[in-house]
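Ticket #4471: structure output looks truncated?

Reporter: J.K.
Steps to reproduce: submitted the chain below (75 residues) through the standard prediction queue, then opened the result file.
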Amino acid sequence: MFRRNQPIDGYVVDFFCARSRVAVELGVDRQTTRVGKYLEQKGYSVIRVGHTEAEEDPSGVAAQIVDLCKDLDPG
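Returned output as attached by the reporter:
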């Protein structure tokens, strides 16, 4: 299950799945890139999704997120 606006180590990610340790960041800018790199160093998987991509292809974005979570699900 994903939580919205989840705090992690002083940062707030847009969406987060604790079971798979996946963070989803909407928008691609310096802030999300910095947060994403920090989280990746801490062992989280991070998906960065541009606003345009999310609006134009929400099904594709959702499929990408689901696929990653399935791959990482500890079972």
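Triage note (M.O.): checked the attachment and the full token line is present. The chain has a mean pLDDT of 89.
Status: closed, working as intended.
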